[in-house]
TrEMBL record:
Cell location: Mitochondrion
A matching Pfam family: ATP13
Lineage top rank: taxon: Eukaryota
Organism of provenance: Pichia membranifaciens
Residue ranges the record marks as coiled coil: 561-588
Protein name: ATPase expression protein 2, mitochondrial
C-alpha cells in the first residue's frame, strides 16, 4: 500500500491510498482504454517509482545530472530573427483570387512542340510557382510528356511540385505558430494561407492524376503517395497504393512495394496511424474527419487485418530483397500494442534491440549482457525518435506506461551516443510521455468515479483516492527534467494541469529561470508569450497556496516572480476575493461547530 505524502496539504491535490480492491473492476483492454483500474495504475506507479530511484543513481542518470544544462549565447540584441522572418513573408501572392480556377494559357490548336520546350525551360526557373501555374493551367496536355520528356525530367517535375507544396506548408505552419506576433489582420492572412495551401494541394493532385496516365517510375509513385500521406489525405494514399499494387501484379519485374510504401499501407489499413490513435479514450492528435479512412473500407487485393499484413510484408521482403527498415518496425510495434499482444511486443523489442521485460520474474526491464549492439544492429535498424514514440504508444495503450518509459530510457542510454535525438525531438518525445501519463490519470478519475460511491472516494483520513495521478505525473516529470534542457510551453501547461501542488510550487523557481533566461528569449517577440505562460504558472501556484489559507505566502510569491505591474495587481485582487470567501467559509464552519457544541450542552441539560 502506498503512503500519503506529509508535505502535501491541499484539498484538491493530496495523495493517499486506501484501496477497497473488491469494489474495483479489472482493466478491460477491449474498451480501448477509456478507463483504467486503480490496481493497474498503482502497479505502474510502484514500478516507475522503483525505476526512478534506480535511474537517479545509475551511471546514465549521473552522467545526465552532471551535464552543463546551460551554454553561453552571443547575439546582437537589436536583431530580431523572428520579426525579420515574419516581415519577410510575402503575402502578395495571396491576392491571386483565381487560384482555384485553372485557365489554360494555350489554345486547343497549340502544338505540343511549343508546350514541351516551355516545360523544359520552367524546370530550371528559380520561381517554382511558374512551373506550378503553367502545369495547373494545362493539365489536359500532360499526356504529351510521354515520349517527349525523359524519365529524369518527369521525376524532376514531381520533385519540384512537392518542394513547392512543402514550402507553402512550412510557411503556413510558421505563420500559424507565430500569428500572435502579427497585426490585427493576421486571422485574414492565416485563413487566406490555409485556403491557398488547400487549393494548391487540389491543383497538384490534378497534375499528379494527369501524370498517372503516363508511365511513371516506382520512385515517382512512391513520392506521389508519400505526398498525399504526409498531407493526411489517407484515402487518396491507400487508393494509389491499391492502383500501384495492381501494376505490381501485372508487371512484377518493374514494380514492387518499397519499405516506405509498405509502412504507409500497413499504417493506414491496420489503423496504427497516430492520427487514429487514442490513449485512454482521448485522441493524441487532432485530424479532420474527412481525411480518415472509413473503417468499413475493403482493400481490393487481400484482407487487411494486422496479422495478414505482417505476413504479406515478410513474404514480399524476402521475395524483393527489401532492406531492413525502422519505418516498418514502427508500424509493427504500434500494431502489436493496438491488438494487445504484449508478449509478442516484448519479444520483438528484445530480439531487435536487446532489451528484455521480465514479467514473470523480479528483474523488470533490463539490457541483455550478451547482446552485442555493434554486431547485432545495423544502421538501418538503429532506433530513432519514431521508434520511441511507437513504443510509448504501444505500451500506454495497454495500461503499461511504466514499461514504455523504462524501455525507452534504456534505448536512450544504450543507443543515443549516435545522438538520434536533438533538443527539439527530445522535448517532443517527453511532452508526449507527460501527456500520456496525464491522460492515464484522467482515465483513473473516471473509473473510480464510476466504480465507487462518492463517500468512498477518500480513505479513512479524508484524503482523495483520485490524487494518485498527480504523484505518478510528478515521477515522469522528474525523469523528463534529466533529458530536457529547455522546457517548452506545452510541458509547462501539462505540469500546471497534472502535477501535485508540492511539485508545482517546488518547480516555480526553475520554470521562472527557464522562461526568463536570455537564450529562451533571444527573439524579443518571444517575451510576450513566455511572460504569459509564466504568469499563468504563478497564478496556479497562488491558487494552491490560497486553498491552504496561505495568502501572505501567495502575495510574496507574486511580488517575487511577476514583473508586470498590471498582472501583479490582477493577481492580488484575485487573492483578496479568495481571502474574503475563505474568511466567510471559516465563519460558517465556526458557527456550525459552535452549534454542535450548543446542541450537546442542551442534551446534557435535558
Amino acid at each position: 500500500m502506498l503512503k500519503s505524502s506529509s508535505y502535501v496539504y491541499t484539498s484538491t491535490r493530496r495523495i493517499s491510498f486506501f484501496v477497497p480492491s473488491s469494489r474495483l473492476n479489472e482493466f478491460n483492454k477491449r474498451q480501448l482504454q477509456n478507463n483504467a483500474s486503480l490496481e493497474t495504475f498503482v502497479k505502474n506507479y510502484e514500478e516507475i517509482q522503483q525505476y526512478s530511484a534506480k535511474f537517479a543513481t545509475s551511471l546514465h542518470g549521473t552522467k545526465l545530472n552532471s551535464l552543463d544544462q546551460t551554454s553561453e549565447f552571443q547575439f546582437n540584441p537589436n536583431v530580431d530573427v523572428l520579426a525579420d522572418s515574419l516581415n519577410s513573408i510575402n503575402f502578395k501572392f495571396l491576392q491571386d483570387e483565381n487560384e482555384k480556377t485553372a485557365v489554360s494559357t494555350f489554345s486547343d490548336k497549340t502544338k505540343s512542340e511549343k508546350f514541351i520546350p516551355k516545360i523544359r525551360f520552367l524546370l530550371y526557373d528559380a520561381d517554382l510557382r511558374n512551373l506550378y501555374n503553367f502545369l495547373k493551367c494545362n493539365v489536359n496536355k500532360i499526356t504529351h510528356f510521354e515520349g517527349n520528356l525523359s524519365s529524369y525530367e518527369i521525376s524532376l517535375i514531381i520533385k519540384r511540385l512537392l518542394y513547392y507544396n512543402d514550402s507553402l506548408a512550412h510557411r503556413l505552419k510558421f505563420v500559424t505558430k507565430n500569428k500572435h506576433y502579427l497585426d490585427e489582420e493576421v486571422d485574414h492572412y492565416v485563413k487566406k494561407l490555409n485556403s491557398f495551401s488547400r487549393a494548391v494541394y487540389q491543383s497538384t493532385k490534378s497534375i499528379f492524376n494527369g501524370l498517372s496516365k503516363i508511365e511513371l517510375s516506382l520512385y515517382d509513385y512512391e513520392n506521389i503517395i508519400l505526398f498525399h500521406y504526409q498531407k493526411n489525405y489517407l484515402n487518396k494514399a491507400i487508393e494509389l497504393i491499391s492502383e500501384l499494387e495492381k501494376k505490381v501484379l501485372e508487371n512484377p519485374e518493374k514494380y514492387h512495394l518499397t519499405n516506405t510504401l509498405w509502412a504507409i499501407k500497413m499504417d493506414i489499413l491496420s489503423q496504427t496511424n497516430t492520427n487514429f490513435w487514442k490513449i485512454y479514450g482521448e485522441t493524441i492528435y487532432k485530424l479532420n474527419s474527412n481525411h480518415k479512412v472509413n473503417f468499413k473500407y475493403t482493400y481490393p487485393h487481400h484482407g487487411h487485418n494486422f496479422q495478414t499484413l505482417v505476413k504479406r510484408y515478410e513474404t514480399e521482403k524476402e521475395k524483393n530483397s527489401l532492406p531492413d527498415s525502422t519505418s516498418v518496425l514502427e508500424v509493427i510495434i504500434k500494431g502489436m500494442g493496438k491488438h494487445g499482444d504484449l508478449t509478442a511486443l516484448d519479444s520483438f523489442i528484445e530480439s531487435n534491440w536487446g532489451i528484455k521485460n521480465d514479467r514473470k520474474g523480479d528483474k523488470g526491464v533490463y539490457f541483455l549482457e550478451h547482446f552485442n549492439i555493434r554486431k547485432r544492429i545495423n544502421g538501418l535498424l538503429w532506433p530513432n525518435e519514431d521508434v520511441l514514440i511507437s513504443i510509448l504508444l504501444a505500451y500506454a495503450k495497454n495500461g503499461d506506461l511504466a514499461t514504455a518509459l523504462e524501455i525507452n530510457n534504456l534505448i536512450l542510454d544504450k543507443y543515443n551516443h549516435e545522438k538520434f535525438l536533438n533538443a527539439s525531438n527530445t522535448t517532443k518525445y517527453w511532452t508526449l510521455a507527460l501527456r500520456c501519463s496525464g491522460l492515464y490519470g484522467d482515465a483513473l478519475d473516471k473509473q473510480l468515479a464510476k466504480d465507487l460511491p462518492e463517500n468512498e472516494l477518500s480513505d479513512a483520513f479524508g484524503t482523495s483516492l483520485l490524487e494518485i495521478k498527480y504523484r505518478f505525473f510528478d515521477t515522469v516529470w522528474q525523469m523528463s527534467e534529466k533529458y530536457v534542457n529547455h522546457l517548452n510551453r506545452d510541458m509547462i501547461k501539462l505540469k500546471m494541469k497534472y502535477a501535485s501542488s508540492h511539485e508545482l510550487l517546488k518547480g516555480l523557481p526553475n520554470v521562472h529561470s527557464k522562461m526568463t533566461e536570455i537564450t529562451y528569449n533571444k527573439m524579443s517577440l518571444n517575451l510576450k508569450v513566455n511572460e504569459t505562460a509564466l504568469n499563468n504558472y504563478v497564478r496556479e501556484c497562488c491558487l494552491e497556496l490560497a486553498r491552504r489559507g496561505r495568502f501572505l505566502d501567495a502575495s510574496q510569491l507574486i511580488e517575487k516572480f511577476v514583473s508586470s505591474e498590471q498582472t501583479v495587481n490582477e493577481l492580488k485582487e484575485m487573492l483578496v476575493e479568495m481571502q474574503e470567501a475563505y474568511a466567510r467559509e471559516r465563519v460558517k464552519h465556526d458557527e456550525r461547530k459552535r452549534q454542535i457544541i450548543d446542541d450537546d450542552d442542551d442534551f446534557e441539560l435535558w
